[in-house]
Specification:
heterodimer; A: mainly beta; Lipocalin; 13-stranded mixed beta sheet; three-stranded antiparallel beta sheet; 12% helix; 41% strand; B: alpha/beta; Rossmann fold; seven-stranded mixed beta sheet; 22% helix
């Protein structure tokens, strides 16, 4: 059984009013992707580009511009393939403070009508850097070629956490947008209003119970409170308040480690399951040989 | 048409309670087999899928050090490993559930690319501990001996269902002609779990290494590196 040790500071039980929201199923059709493509400046007429479809995604591309919608989530990924993450000329070196990058990203989000400004806040700016060195470690150099700015969805005063609930705007060395990611499921009304919140310590008890089959020591660094939204490839019916537990699981000799995440319901009366149960792994056929 | 590549994956999630004991991992098989099956669905050749006790450190250790890498990790073009990783004194190591013939494999006993291996992913912690150029070269300058690109993480990475689609996403991207380094750095970075991604390309010259870092796709399979004299990397933090 995993031993769970709280290393970080325990947060108090939140006081913000919360609801459980129903989420509308994603609408992923040829018409919807063309409408989104037009929003990103593509012509998106019948003969202007190429439409590709598979079980998980629908993709429309027109020249170097490409937009993909994920069927499960409705999540959108837009890229200008000639410019996204590209180190043009090999000399670019983007220098921009987080605050300025955030302003630019929020401008882009507003202009493209990705989300109302009041419904998102700056979360983090992550820079793409390149470096080189010879095998002896001489002539080391490093430059920044883009910045990806994550804007976090807010519902009232409560953030939306998890792999979804975000808009990411990629800005190149000229501070122009080169790509957009958006996982932002539409709400379809309140499923259940209000409700009593559990104390955050209850999340640790849930984690211990859920991971009773896992051996190791888990040091919890942080517990966050927020609505939880899934990533690109998963369907989700409800948006509800959660505690997100972030920690590190370590080997007994402390030489190996991995970060771990557990999501527990924050409401006394939640709906459905958040962290998927650990599924039993089928035994592998024994391997022969030396 | 993308060139067909041979793919092998190894993953270790359940460790025995003996000298090889490590904390168990829950999503390494999802990542590795997600990559394996998605590559297969795009027409690439699925060569081996070794998990838990079937994953052996000898699959990575070069014969110069008594290992069998040339029949396994270096007998495919693309090897994806999801496991525990550690890094100490510029030596990257990965852990195994049982000793065959050691509990860990250490990068100083790797000669990646001597035979066939072009690309390798380590979906584990600590491919590098930081982005200091001397550290990156110190860890990977020795083991990279013909391999084109190594992908991994800076410091810790998460074992979580938030990131268990990584193998599928990455495979879909590179089979759609996205660059290998660019796709890895983009897909493996996570704002929400704090995973910082890195891809390290080798080259005969500085321009060669940069070109591979910025432009190499699966179609560069046969564009061999005669001698690894330079490394060029990209990372997101």
């Amino acid at each position: 059984m995993a031993e769970i040790v709280m290393k970080g500071k325990m947060i108090p039980t939140p006081r913000e009013p919360t609801n459980i929201y129903k989420l509308a199923p994603a609408r992923v059709t040829e018409a919807s992707i063309r409408a989104i493509a037009r929003g990103f400046g593509m012509r998106a007429e019948a003969r202007a580009g190429v439409l590709r479809s598979d079980a998980n995604t629908l993709t429309y591309s027109e020249g170097p511009l490409e937009v993909t919608i994920y069927r499960a989530s409705g999540g959108v990924r837009f890229r200008d393939l000639n410019r996204w993450q590209v180190d043009r000329g090999g000399t670019a070196d983007l220098r921009i403070e987080d605050a300025a990058a955030s302003r630019l990203a929020q401008d882009v989000a507003g202009r493209l009508k990705l989300a109302p400004a009041r419904d998102c806040r700056f979360f983090k700016a992550a820079r793409l850097k390149v470096g080189e060195a010879d095998r002896e470690g001489r002539e080391v150099s490093e430059r920044t070629i883009d910045v990806a700015v994550a804007l976090q969805r807010m519902i009232g005063k409560v953030p939306v956490d998890g792999p979804g609930g975000k808009i990411v705007v990629y800005l190149d060395a000229d501070k122009k947008p080169t790509g957009i990611e958006r996982i932002w499921r539409k709400t379809a009304g309140v499923y259940r209003k209000g409700g009593e919140l559990r104390p955050p310590a209850a999340a640790l008890e849930d984690m211990q119970a859920a991971w009773r089959s896992v051996a190791g020591i888990i040091e919890v660094d942080e517990i966050r409170f927020g609505y939880f939204e899934e990533g690109y490839r998963r369907k989700q019916q409800y948006l509800q308040p959660t505690y997100i537990v972030l920690g590190v699981i370590r080997s007994p000799d402390n030489t190996m480690r991995r970060r771990v995440v557990y999501v527990a319901p924050a409401l006394v009366k939640p709906v459905g399951q958040l962290t998927p149960p650990l599924r039993p792994k089928p035994p592998q056929r024994g391997r022969r040989g030396n | 048409m993308t060139l067909q590549v041979r793919v092998g994956v190894e993953w270790v999630g359940t460790f025995h309670n003996d000298a090889c004991k490590q904390a168990d991992l829950s999503y390494v098989d999802d990542q590795a087999e997600g990559f394996f099956n998605t590559m297969g669905s795009h027409g690439h050749v699925k060569v081996f899928d070794w998990g838990n006790d079937n994953s052996w450190e000898t699959d990575f250790r070069h014969p110069d050090f008594g290992g069998d890498s040339l029949n396994w990790s270096d007998n495919v073009h693309f090897c994806f490993v999801a496991d525990h990783g550690g890094n100490n004194n510029n030596m990257f190591s990965i852990a195994f559930s049982k000793s065959h013939n050691n509990c860990q494999s250490v990068s100083t006993q790797w000669r990646l690319g001597r035979k066939m291996l072009k690309w390798m992913v380590h979906s584990s912690c600590d491919a590098v501990l930081n982005t200091d150029g001397n550290h990156i070269v110190g860890v990977w300058g020795g083991p990279m001996q013909g391999i084109h690109i190594v992908c991994g993480y800076i410091g810790t990475s998460a074992d979580s269902w938030w990131t268990d689609d990584l193998g599928e996403d990455f495979a879909d991207d590179i089979c759609d002609d996205d660059t290998i380094a660019g796709s890895w750095v983009s897909r493996a970075y996570s704002f929400w779990t704090g995973d910082d991604s890195i891809a390290i390309a080798a080259g005969v010259t500085k321009d060669d290494a940069i070109n591979r870092r910025d432009n190499e796709t699966l179609n560069w399979r046969d564009s061999n590196i005669a001698s690894t004299n330079w490394l060029a990397w990209k990372f997101r933090t």
